[in-house]
Amino acid sequence: RDEITRKFDEIVDFAEVEKFIDTPVKRYSSGMYVRLAFAVAAHLDPEILVVDEVLAVGDAAFQKKCLGKMGDVAKEGRTVLFVSHNMGAIQSLCHSCIWIEKGSIRDKGSANEVVRHYFGNVTLSNSGTGLFSGLPRKRDLTGFEFLSYVLLDSHAQIVSFAQFNNPLIIRVTCHADRNISGAVLAVNWFDENGNLVNRANTRSIGMADIEIGQGNVTVDVLFPALPLIPNLYRVSIALQDGGKGYYDWLDQAIEVNIKENHNSPIRFIYGQSNGTTWIPVDFQIHT
User: Fold this and answer.
1) Is the pTM of this model over 0.70?
2) Along the chain (287 residues), what's the average pLDDT of each consecutive run of 10 residues?
3) For residue 187, what are the CA distances in angstroms to 14, 120, 216?
4) What residue spans define the domains of the chain?
5) Domain spanning 2-121 has what CATH number?
6) How many CA atoms lie within 13 A of 163 on its CB side?
7) How far apart are CA 20 and CA 7, in angstroms?
8) Chain segment 210-250, per-residue pLDDT in tens
């Protein structure tokens, strides 16, 4: 308690809860609660810091702060036990890694080796369709479940891959045990190494919170054009209550293979990194 009192201002500043300091913690959203919990734990100079999925909350700036703080703790000679599905963060932060599947150790070794093994053995689907049964999920709330997905082109035909700069529809089948209101639907794109490429949700694009009726429901996630460099990507999908947590969250559970579009004049150089996103460009030379 004395240590928390001494570092109170640092903790509040790190957790970014200054505006809510007089609000009872029981009224905090799940994201605020996790940010505060991490800030307290990280500032108490523990010999062992256990961090479980803290990067699932907060914006990119807060996640960067968390990674920086964990790095500082490790550099001081203390131990960080980092639990995450974010492969990019694991590779950048950890020297050694353990892959646990269904309560058993599947692999252990250097972080880079285990991550490569993970992506080489976790097969999702290469047919453009997939079932979510048996995949790990995060659930804070009951009454809703993602069941399956299918990839569609602009003509609503099933496709096994997407094409650069072409439209794509991810059609997700769900089941709700009851009517749900005030929900937020989110999709995050990751590259083949687990690095975040894009984060979006219904609120971020200006949509009102959504309502889902009881029974089986179909959700279409529409991308008018995919400006992603041809490669293998994975997509997370989540339905959450604005402030109470997740109804269902499947991390990197949808596999999308993006291939070159031969109807496009844009070509990519293979054998070298092209990044992840195409930014339109023109060259003008004046003499």
Assistant:
1) no
2) 73 78 76 78 79 64 76 83 76 84 87 73 60 84 91 88 92 92 94 88 92 90 91 93 87 90 75 73 88
3) 27, 23, 20
4) 2-121, 129-259
5) 3.40.50.300
6) 12
7) 18
8) 999 998 888 999 999 999 988 889 999 999 997 778 999 99
Amino acid at 51: V
CA dist 88 and 118 (Å) reads 12
Cα pseudo-dihedral 38, 191, 198, 240, rounded to 10: -60
- Asked if the 129-259 domain carries CATH number 3.40.50.720, the reply is no
Question: Which token pair is 140?
Answer: 């804070």
Lookup result for tokens 């339109």: 280
| Cβ-proximal residues to 20 (8 Å cutoff; 6+ apart), any chain | 28, 32
What is residue 18's DSSP assignment?
G
CA 277/CA 198 separation, integer angstroms: 10
Between strands 245-259 and 162-163, the pairing is: parallel
Report the helix count and the strand count for the chain, using DSSP H and E. 6, 14
- Say how many CA atoms lie within 13 Å of 64 toward its Cβ: 4
Separation CA 34–CA 41 (nearest Å): 11
Compute the distance between CA of residue 280 and CA of residue 47 in angstroms, rounded to an integer: 49
